[in-house]
Structure formats: C-alpha cells, structure tokens
Amino acid sequence: MLSELATHNQAIASKSIIKKIGFRVGPSGVHIGRTIMLDELRTLLSCVPSPDAQREDYIKAIVENNCLGKRSQKNRELSARHLMTLYSLDSSVATFQALRYFWIRDVCSQPRIALLSAYSRDGLLRMSAPYVLSLKEGEVLDRAAFKEFLDKKASGRLSGFCLEGLVRNVCGTLIRSGHLHRAGKARSKAVATEGSVSYALFLGYLCGARGEALFSTEFAKLLDCSSARMIELAEEASRRGWINFKRIGNVMEVQFTNLLTAQEREWIHEQN
Length: 272
Known about the structure:
Elements: H1 2-8, H2 10-14, H3 17-21, H4 38-47, H5 55-64, H6 73-87, H7 94-105, H8 110-121, H9 123-133, H10 143-153, H11 160-176, H12 194-206, H13 218-221, H14 227-239, E1 244-248, E2 251-255, H15 262-271
Antiparallel strand pairs: 1-2
C-alpha cells in the first residue's frame, strides 16, 4: 500500500500529505543498526507522559536528561535520531498521536503497535517483513535464504556486513513483536488485541482503505489475525470508545473521530 502510494500517486507526494500524516516512503531505515527499540520507546514515553509533548521535549529527555541511560553524548543523539525515524516523536503527526492513544489503553498491544509504526516509517523493515511473514508457524528461519532474499530486494546495493546487520535486527524486531521465537528463530503467531487492531485499521485508513478493505491491508496482515477475529476486536474497541465501528452484514464503516483533526481529515479527503 505504501509502495503504491509512492509510485502511483505523485499528486499526493507533491503535497507531502504522506509525510504530514506520519509515513516515510522510501528504502531507508534504521534496521541495519537497530531494532524497533521497544524498551527505549517504553522508557521515553513513561518519562514524557504528556500526549501533547513536543518533539523538543522528547529530544531533551533523551539528550539532555539521558532518560535512556546512554553512556555518551553521541549515543544519546543517535538514539534520538533513530527513535524519530521509527516513530516521529511529534504530537502534531497523526500516526504518533494515535500510537500514544492506543499505547496507554492497551499495554499488551505495545510490541505490535511499535511494529506497526516502525513498519509505516522504515523502508528496510517493509522490505524484510514479507519473508518472515511468509513462513509457516513453527518453520525455522533460514538465515542464508533470508540474506539472499534481502540481497535481491535491495538489488545488491547492501554489503555483506549491512545484510548481516539487517537480518539480525529484523529478527530482533520480530522476536519482540511475537512473530518469531527467541530460541531457534522459529515462526510464531503474534497475538492481536484491541489496541493493535485499532492502530492497524487507523494506518490503513490514513492510506485510503475503507470499509471491509481495512481488514486486509498490509498493516492488518502484520497482526497474524483472521479478518473475522479482527472484526471481533474492532467491535470490542468500538464498545470501549476507542474507534467508531459499524457493521451491517458485509457492509462496514470505521471512523476515528477522536484521533484526527479537521486539517488531517481534509488532507485524507484530498488523498482519496
């Protein structure tokens, strides 16, 4: 979906709508050197609890206050840069505001919410994830085959060292999200809950999907969850007031009235 937006809708790209609402389109990312930094994100959001905090507040917490406990100034600055790449850390950005909204409401979903956000912003993770997701439950990841897959996807532009780092860190990310077992790197099924399903639907909505199509986007597929189960979780999220979900037979409507500003709704309308 993100690749389609990048290649087939230049009008959107020229207006920077994708960037404004929080997506990063392109092949770059942090996964050659970092995972999704789940522990760092958890620490940072607990140290900066206000959902209205500005990017400068997050940077100050990391660089000046050293909330992540890094040993050097350089490591603090690198951590801040990588976290901005993965999550934006900007309260004016729709994807990050929604991350914070569901983050505190469904703690069990945090690893999947972090994965979804990172996937929407890290081209290396988007390039890598389909290989792992294609494995059958219990199938052990073949590192050599994974490296070959990535080498082809990157058209040979990554060195052997970079490929090793990418394999290692993508595996680390998908272990944290529940898609791989830590021991042996065998494929496991991630556990979807109301918060992660709501966030996946939201990201799909921002990309232009509507109704039943929201339950089959690339974000939805990241959750290892059937459409029927996703619908059940969406209904529960709606009962809790997190999203607005209506269904009559196969006709579905999902709205996010408490997550989008009037300006963001206008941008999304332009996109559609």
